User: What shape does this take?
Amino acid sequence: MPHPKILLQFDTDSQPSSFDSVVAVDAGVDHLLQYAAVTPENVVSLVHGAMFTRGVDQLKNTALFVGGSDVAAGELLLKKIDQIFFGPIRVSVMLDSGGCNTTATAAVLSAARHVTLGGARATVLAATGPVGTIVCRLLAAQGCHVFAGSRSANRAEAVCERIREALPNAQIEPLETGDQWNRLPDETQVVIAAGAEGIELLPAKVRASATDLRVAIDLNAVPPLGIEGIEVHDQAKPDGDAICYGAIGVGGTKMKIHKAAIEALFASNDCLLDAEAIFALGRELEAAQG
Assistant: This one.
């Protein structure tokens, strides 16, 4: 008889995310164990507890979820966890700090429904945040020419450097935006705003002046929204020559991907779901839905 599905939620923040907890339960986890302030220094015994309490044939029923608001901290934690495993003694792991991988995947897939990303020019506003960084990476991997926008030129360049290290052929360049951007780069076809809640990044008049724009996606759900004129529930809504998505319009896809990723953790004991793996899973879901 199979053991119940246990998910250990490792959060790098001072308390575990209630959002991630609810999604885990809705995805069919039988038992959710939550841990806060998890670091590479204190995670070893937690991982050992997951590895050594069940036989190899039942390890697929135990999995780890790495979350928290800091993507860099989450990636370091994931790296440490992967180093602890050996041979067949391992469990599946998913990284989604701040919703970075599932939300970014949903945004990029939404854009891909309307624009061929290979060779397209895309501008990401608030590109240095947890979601914006992954959006840039996924777009660059699809062959986009990416402008990584940030109020800080140095932070924008740092994001570009990290992406170039992972993707040497990435076409990505920094874009200093200030508090609001007053002009999108020439021939921008896709713009994705991934800023903090309640901060407007792109005024309507600037968006209207971008004559090549085909897709505008705003991932902020708290007024004022990141892109003026987009409503939170917009889902493939035409606006001139562009198609618009609001946060909830993208959110349905994000939730499907998040739940499917949790479910995938329990298919085997050696699944590692990082940004690229979650994007691949999202593409499979899109293909299955036609």
Observations:
- Residues 247-265 form the longest helix (19 residues).
- The radius of gyration is 19 Å.
- The mean pLDDT is 94.
- The chain has two domains: 6-99+255-288, 102-250.
